[in-house]
Design a protein that fits this description.
By secondary structure, the chain is of the alpha/beta class. The protein is about 55% helix and about 10% strand.
């Protein structure tokens, strides 16, 4: 599932723990290799899809490039930002689960016309389904507490956090 270019064990840990669950639930991703890069590695790729990097901890892309003529999916990782936010292993796993959620739902035509809140919620739900809901709530709280985002962005992060709390309380 992953092609880990980073040398970081967090991606290997995620794959070991969650690959079978994800492939069972989302069979359409069986043929997709997800390349894992640090932000520095990703920026060195020829003709890689340009991403808006706002000092995020993780991000994703799905595209076609000359280097990878088939579907090219990637998760981009900032070790520095993860350290700055003091993310623990479960929190990093939840962020990876969220980014994989984006890749999974990239192919969901029902989401093509949806707003960003719905798309973010669908990605959050993948992390929640993997049992990482509490860890993702912690990540969202840490992101909110940094003060680096605008008020509307923090409102969206808070909405997502509160939605996850509702899901967890409904169990």
């Amino acid at each position: 599932m992953f092609v880990n270019h980073t040398g970081e064990c967090i991606f290997d840990a995620f794959e070991t723990r969650f690959q079978d669950i994800l492939l069972d639930r989302y069979s359409h991703i069986k043929d997709i290799q997800i390349h894992c890069f640090t932000i520095n590695q990703y920026q060195q790729l020829k003709e890689a899809e340009e991403i808006t990097w706002n000092n995020d901890t993780f991000a994703y892309t799905v595209s076609r490039t000359p280097d990878y003529p088939n579907i090219f999916a990637s998760i981009i990782y900032s070790p520095d930002q993860c350290r700055n936010l003091d993310l623990n292993i479960e929190e990093m796993l939840s962020a990876i689960g969220h980014e994989i959620g984006h890749i999974i739902h990239y192919f969901n035509e029902a989401l093509d016309c949806r707003n960003s809140r719905v798309i973010e919620i669908k990605a959050d739900e993948v992390a929640y389904e993997l049992g990482l809901g509490n860890a993702l709530i912690n990540v969202l709280n840490k992101l909110i507490s940094t003060g680096k985002d605008s008020d509307p962005q923090n409102l969206e992060l808070s909405f997502r956090r509160d939605y996850l709390k509702l899901l967890l309380n409904a169990r």
